[in-house]
Each structure stands twice: as structure tokens, then as C-alpha cells.
Write a structure and sequence with these properties.
The chain has 243 residues and is an alpha/beta fold. Helices cover 33% and strands 26% of the residues. It contains 7 helices and 11 strands. It starts with a strand and ends in a 9-residue tail after the last strand. The chain binds adenosine-5'-triphosphate and magnesium ion.
Amino acid sequence: MADLIKSGIDGMDSMLFGGFPRENQIMVGGGPGAGKSLIAFEYIYRGALAGEPGMIFAFDEEPKKIISNVKGAFPNFERLDGLIDEGLIKIEGRDILQEAFNKYEQAGMEFGRIVADMEKKVIASGAKRAVVDSSSDFELVIKDPIIYRRSMWSLAANFRRLGVTTVFTSEIHNPDRKKLVFKPEHFIFDGIILMYQNGEDSRRIPALEIIKMRGHKHSFSTAPYEITPNGFKIYSPETIDDQ
Ligand SMILES: Nc1ncnc2c1ncn2[C@@H]1O[C@H](COP(=O)(O)OP(=O)(O)OP(=O)(O)O)[C@@H](O)[C@H]1O
Ligand SMILES: [Mg+2]
């Protein structure tokens, strides 16, 4: 039986038959506004509530804005400020990437430095859980697709070596299940979870699917989800009793 790390997200651990295999590097993909950043944050929040330190690398938004977005979506996350004050949730902004943006021509070399910086922060924080939001931002730094894929591989390998279970958010440009196209870098992750916008033209129905989870059984269903004041609610057809 794999050593599992509970996501703590309502319905997710049923779909995962217990949780993520520890040290897995998991991509959470979806279209704009699917809830990728919020679900990744909840994963860190639930871990911190259970005493597990988490580290968020947020490249899309400033830490202050992220916290206010989370408070807006999840007003019942009452321990949020306290967990940040206690150092159980750490948020790094885009400074790590900013310098590399300015040195675009040497991006391959710069990427090594970014990975080293991230590694140092993870070690210093003692994080067991991490989030990289979004991994797609590295495409802005590295233009050669082979170097990009190799860089993503080394990033995932580094986190694995550090013993961290990581969620990498990723932009999926066509989040319609029937028209999915995977990019080469998606094959390097241990797990893939996709967030779709299904349904009729007049109303979208968000739903989530686990495409793969190396080393562990998982649901093959596509489950609707909602963003509630208490966090995500995933309507998993699997129940804890099935496991
Ligand atoms: N209070 C709320 N109640 C319900 N849904 C909310 C609430 N606040 C935000 N949302 C939903 O969450 C979405 C934003 O979630 P999030 O920022 O995680 O998306 P994302 O997938 O990271 O998007 P992007 O690709 O733009 O970064 C909003 O578009 C909205 O649909
Ligand atoms: Mg986002």
C-alpha cells in the first residue's frame, strides 16, 4: 500500500481511494477560471490545518491578492491568517521568475537558477506540500520546447527528491473533454487531474477527472464540483466505503 497524503478536499480523497501517493508530482490542468489556483490553495490549507507545512510558488498573482481571492471564495477558512502567521503556509511571489524574464536570451541557464532558488525555499520552509501556480508560466521563460520539457522534468525530479508532494497548475487551452490535446511535458508528471467546463450552451457544469495517478488506484469517473464557502465540494461517485 502506497504511503498516501490526504488532499483534505471534500470528495477528492474518495476519488483517489485515500489520497495522493506521497512524493507524487501532480498536474492540475484546466481552462481560465476553472478553479486551479483555488483548489491548489485548498490542498495547502488542508495540509497546514493538519500540521503539514506547505509552500506556494505563485507566479500569476501577488501573494496579497491570492490571499484576498481565497478569502473571497472561501470565507469559512477561518484559520487562514493564523496558519500564515505560524509559518505553516508560505507564499512566494513572482520575484523568482522576474529576473529570468529580463534575461530571456539565456533562459536555459536561468532556469537552473530558478530551480535552485525554489529548492532552497522548500528546504528552508520544511514544506511537505508544495504548489507551483502556474507551471505554464515557465513557457514564458523558455522558448525551446526541448529545453522546456527537460526543465520541467528536472523541476519535478527535484521536488520528488526533496520528498515534497506537489501540485503544478497548468493551462489547458481547450478544456473540452472530447477535444483534449496533451502536451509532451504532461507525460513527466506522476499524476494528472483535469478540470472541465461541461454542459449545455446556456450553463456550464464544472467537472473534474483524474487522468492518471502513478502508483495508485483512482476513480475513472468525471465528477461535478462546486466552489463553496467551505472549499471545494467534489461529487465523487466513489465513497470511502468502496475502498
Ligand atoms: N465566492 C465564490 N463562489 C463561487 N465561485 C467562486 C467564488 N470566487 C471565485 N469563484 C470561481 O473561481 C474562479 C477563479 O478560480 P481560480 O482563480 O482558481 O481559477 P484558475 O483556474 O486559477 O484561473 P486562471 O487560469 O485564470 O489562473 C472564478 O472564475 C469563479 O468561477
Ligand atoms: Mg490561477
